[in-house]
Amino acid sequence: MKQGPTTGTPHDTTPHPCALIMTSSHHLSLPDQPPPEPLLDRLQTPVWIFDIERERMHYANAAALRLWNAPTIDALLDRDWSSTMSDASRQRLADYRSRLQRGEHIDEHWTFYPGGQAVSLHCRCSGLPLEDGRIEMLVEGLESDILLDASSLRALEAVRHIPLMVSVFDAAGQLLVRNPAALELERGNASFVDAFEDPDQARQLLQRLEHQANCLLEAVMRVKGDSRWHHLDLCRTTDPKTSRAMIVMGELDITRRKDLEHAQLLAKRQLEVVIESLDVGLLLEDERRNVIVANQAFCDIFAIDALPDTLVGMDCREAAHAAKPAFRDPERFVARIEALVAGEQGQARDILAMADDRFLERCYTPVIVDQRHRGHLWGYRDITRQKRREADWALQASTDALTGLANRRAFDENARKVAAAVKAGESPAALLMIDIDRFKAINDTFGHAEGDKALCLLADTLKGKLRDDDLPCRTSGEEFMVIMPNMSPEVAEGVAQRLRIQIAERAIAAEALPFHFTVSIGLTGFKASDASLEALIRRADAAMYQAKHEGRDRVATRW
């Protein structure tokens, strides 16, 4: 093959270090003879020089021109290598450069694609220093003593381009080779032990691999001067060149996954602390109604003598039926749970009356993920003190402080309920209006303390002589009213007369001397035709004044 000058290129006129061997120096050509063929061109072995830093070819002998399918040396030197070089190849060459600068000789298998055709070659690479301090790569293409079939070549090429980081070590842990992905770890020639953050762990693994062919684990590895979590796949196999044992290590960076796992564990622990610190009993079920999470407050509320963790996996249906006796309305408790779980409504809040007189507030929230029910969250809070406090407040708001009877507010509220029932045609009802006769004279004669005794005596008489359904009320100073549901006029009049007599017969043990007092009672009935509660009260009031005008100590009626 005819070539141009090989002592330099059109791109670089600097004499190359290999110029002495690129041309013949053993024979001088005669004037009538052609110039001698350069020595390297006589070789059948392809030889070329590649500038790794500038990604350009600097020299190639005749065999290399044939390998690279180049018609002339100039055509090869003008070729744009950067545009066709893969990232894996570029990373591999960058590793070569640092190794060649340390004086290493590199023997590796390469697959080239000149003209789009794959050519596999064993390459021996050495460094060629330049005057400017840089180093070029002298490559000798050698016949391999290991024949690789197409399948093996493809596998080798795949390992060079996959993102999995693959390193090969001898049995002692010394580096043999790395694929381009592993070269990005920037470990240099680090041994197996030096690749680990924990050298002792690495030594133990080497010992294990002496008796164990494979090993999978996660470990902290050294990467670019930092530490990263890697998933390791270790395999002890045989070096196809030396027939000695070697170790293949595949690495996959899982740092992000480990960070997420750590964040999830931290969030889970934080959530557990929050859940345990709540005074609300929490129970989380999955879609099969098995317990996922319960806290200590839940166990305390239901007197469960077990740690919350022991409840995980428990069947909540069975637990609900077992807990029925703890509720005043056991069947309603279970039925309500089933209705909520069946998805008849979303969030719900219920007040549960317990058999031990406690009250629980239950909050239900369906757990919906991707528009599907994935579980159920129950929150239980003991509100017994709150309910009792509310009851006390309600009692105070509706009770006369002196007599303990219902006050005017309670009278109005209950009278409206009875009036509504009468209008609905449920049953008759009567109303008594009771007023102490000459009450001002009692206060003036015996003092207000004795007058208060008279009020309390009247209240005690009403409490003791009326039915449980009747509601006696103190509506003003010496005026009392009694709501009597389910009471006919005739029966009501008899009750009023007995009360009048019983009150008159009782004496007040005053400090000066005992005294008696009487009452005047007005009786009326609830009417469906009453336009308002005031109409009913005016009728009772008129009946009471009628009794006073007729001489006091008597009962008068207005229907």
Query: Number of helical runs?
Result: 17
Supply Rg: 52 Å
Text of the CATH class of the largest domain: Alpha Beta
CATH topology type of the largest domain:
Alpha-Beta Plaits
| Gross geometry | rod-shaped
On the 0 to 100 scale, the average pLDDT is 88
Number of strands: 22
Strand content range: 25-35%
Reading side by side through the largest sheet, how are the strands ordered?
Answer: 2-1-5-4-3
Multimeric state: single chain
Count of structural domains: 4
Characterize the largest beta sheet: strand count, sense, and whether it forms a barrel.
5 strands, antiparallel
**Helix amount:** 25-40%
Low-confidence stretches: 1-11, 23-30
Distance between the termini: 138 Å
Catalytic activity: 2 GTP = 3',3'-c-di-GMP + 2 diphosphate
Protein name: diguanylate cyclase
InterPro entries: Diguanylate_Cyclase, GGDEF_dom, Nucleotide_cyclase, PAS, PAS-like_dom_sf, PAS_4, Rev_trsase/Diguanyl_cyclase
GO molecular function: diguanylate cyclase activity
Protein architecture, described:
Helix content is 35%, strand content 27%. The protein is of the alpha+beta class and 559 residues long. The chain folds into four domains: 17-144, Beta-Lactamase (2-Layer Sandwich), CATH 3.30.450; 162-258, PAS domain (Beta-Lactamase, 2-Layer Sandwich); 278-386, PAS domain (Beta-Lactamase), CATH 3.30.450.20; 398-557, Alpha-Beta Plaits (2-Layer Sandwich), CATH 3.30.70. The longest helix has 23 residues, at 255-277. This is diguanylate cyclase. Its cofactor is Mg(2+).
